[in-house]
Every structure is written in structure tokens, then in C-alpha cells.
Amino acid sequence: MSKLVVEGGARLQGTVGVMGAKNAVLKEMVSALLAPGRHRLTNVPGILDVTLMCEVLGHIGCRVEQGDHELWLVVPDQLLPEAPIELVRQMRASIVVLGPLLARCGEARVALPGGDDLGARPIDMHLNGLEAMGVDFELVHGELVGRVDGRLKGTEVELPFPSVGATENLLFAGVLAEGDTVIVNAAREPEIEDLITQLAEMGADISGGGTSLVTVHGVEKLAPAEHHVVPDRLEAGTYATAAAITAGDVTVTGCTPEHLRMELRKLSEAGCEVEQGNGWLRVRGPERPTPVDFATLPFPGFHTDMHPQMVAVLSIAAGTSVITENLYDARFRYVGELARMGADITTEAQHAVIRGVEQLSGCPVLAPDIRAGAALVMAGLRAEGITEVADASHIDRGYEEFPERLRALGARIERG
Ligand code: UD1
Fold this sequence. Notes:
Bound molecules: uridine-diphosphate-N-acetylglucosamine
Number of domains: 2
Number of strands: 24
CATH architecture of the largest domain: Alpha-beta prism
Number of helices: 14
CATH topology of the largest domain: UDP-n-acetylglucosamine1-carboxyvinyl-transferase, Chain
Shape: elongated
Structural class: alpha/beta
Strand content: 25-35%
């Protein structure tokens, strides 16, 4: 079982580069399914989830060739329209193959992902939207079987919540549908905007990307394209919190600071000095952070995937912070691990009260998911003594060479 061993106390200093966004590249690999031929993606992060998505696409019939931060996806004319439970269980994001498979094959058999470490995570909005476009679903032995007679039909779909995954599945379904698909209350995340850019590069006709009203004018067919993946704002934000928690001075390059406006604003309110320019940001952490309240919300609100890292920072603040988690019902599972390190955090439903302590103390902890794993490493960087983060493979799902990059900034961290 993979483990990271962190010795606390070093102030992180220097420059770190970030790669393409996990939450964009996974969907951009899937959009290749929409057009037979050879696709190319650049700025691809070297993370475990990309490897898992290669397996999903391989199962469906694609050939994947990997280069240095590049991927070529060779998509055949005939696809096997299924994603079995072994693959979906390993990576929930596989559910977005539904849209492309229905569009290309008129059929999709995808295992129902069920809940995960962050909570129940239903997919009702995906299914209701696709049903409105003409798909019939049935659940057969834990597998969703979707069928559409002929082409998908464009229609207006109003999402009750701007779900990232549901917006993506509807985009995928809409690009090859007959007529217009209008997504009302669409997700506005930068990764969605980047996916829309890629689809346009493939010949799709989409307006309103980056707004909550997206209109997809269906076309007869799409062609393979080359696409450069948008920078990972979560990777950039995590290194920003590493500076904040260690009273360090870290410059992040290869990023888009405008995609982190709310998170950088909160770091600034917490006492960090934040500077930014075209493609870079610099964060200098205070000796001890100031308490800050925040609530997670869809973009452009505070990203739920930056919540645990920020809570790690606030756990050593000079005062009490209150945070509200609006997206996931089980995101606070890591709080017990932080408490083992001496953090004083009380949770009640979707709220957490964080009473800052002067010092954290290193101990063995368990990473329950990617971002919580990163947060426990952040806490370990500041704690007195040694922190051993077990189940660190979660971190490798979303961060390329995390310990190596932190070490280059002066952290004392090794794989155990
Ligand atoms: C994506 C990201 C994830 C991020 C999340 C929110 C990927 C691979 N994952 O996940 O890292 O935390 O966006 O920014 O890109 N919901 C429903 N019904 C649905 C769909 C969603 O109730 O049909 C709920 C979910 O349970 C959750 C909320 O809506 O509470 C947001 O989910 P969604 O935006 O769909 O997130 P994902 O696409 O799963």
C-alpha cells in the first residue's frame, strides 16, 4: 500500500509548474469517441486517472499511444458500447462515456457508478436529460442500458443544479443530435469551457460556452482534432496552499490565475500576499493565517475540490473559521484524520467550525480521497515531527509527481 512520509517544518520556496487539468483531460479523452480517426491531446498530466481512462477507451475499442505529456487516441468506426463495473468502480468519471456512445452507437451499457468517498453522488440529471433527448434507459443487473431509436433529438434541458458531469453528457449527446440542444443552468467551470473549445475544434457548433445557457446546434459528423488541455487550477491551488501553510514563498507557472479567483481571494483574506500575472501566480504565506469563512459553490464560487487543502491552512489560523460544504454530503471524512494531528474541528451537517491551533503534530493518517490526501500532506508539511499519509495512491490519481514537486520546493517528503 502506497504511503507518503512527510517531515514538517520546512518553508516551501521556489517555482513549480503545473500540467493540464485532470477534470478536463478525462472528458477530452472521451470526446474522441465522437469521431473515428486519430486525435491528439497535449499538456496531458501524468496521473493515474489518465491511465484508467486509457483502459476504459481501450475496452471500447480505441488504441491509445502515449508520448511525453501527449496522447494519441485512435478511434475505430465500430465501438464496443460498454463500460463494465471493474472500470467504472475505479473511476467514476467513466459515466461520461454514456453521451458519446449513445450518439455514435445508439446504445450504451454502463455500470451504475453508485456512491463513493464523497457521498451518494446520484446521476439522475444525466439520465433525465438524455431521456428528454430520446433515450430509453433500463437498469439490468446493476448496469444501465440506454437505447435510442435513430439519432438523438435536440431539446431544451433545464438542470436543477449546474452539474459538471450532466452538462458534459448533454454536450456529448447534443453535438451529433438532430436540431438544437439547449442546456439551461449549465455548469460554467473552465474545464467545461475547454471541452467546448475541443468539441469546436472537432467541428461542433456550440454557443454560450462558459455561461449558464449553452446551445448546441447538432451536426452530421465530427472530425478528429488536436487539443491543448487547459491548466489544472486545482493543482495550482494546492501548491498555493502549500505556500500558505508553511509561511513559504511559491510561484506557480503554467497556470491560469483567473480560474482561481475566489480561492486566491480567500488565501489573501487569510493573510497571504498574492501576486499574479499571465500564466503565473505567487503566494507568500503569513507566519500564522488569519481565520476566513467560505462556502463551496459551483464556478466561479470556491471550488469544493480546494476545500480540504484550505481547511488544513485554517487549522493553524489565529482564530475560528466557519466553512460550508454545499456539494458533497461526505466530504468531511478527512476531518477525523486532521483531528489526530491536533486540529480542532467540529462538523454539523454541511458546516465545519475550525478553531485554529498553534501547532499540529505529525502522526499516521489515512488519505480518504485525492484532495483530502493532498490536504493531509499540507498539514504534515506544517506539523511538528513525522506524518505518514497512507493510501497515498489516491493522490497519484490527480497529481503528477506530487512528492517530487514538493521536494523541489524544499519539502522533506518521501514515498514510504
Ligand atoms: C466533477 C469533478 C469533481 C468536482 C465536481 C464539482 C470530474 C472528473 N470530477 O464531478 O472533481 O468536485 O465536478 O465541481 O470532473 N448531482 C446530482 N445528480 C446528478 C449529478 C450531480 O444530484 O445527476 C449532484 C452531486 O451528487 C453533487 C453535485 O450535484 O452533489 C455536483 O456534482 P457534479 O457537478 O455533477 O460533479 P461531477 O461531474 O461528478
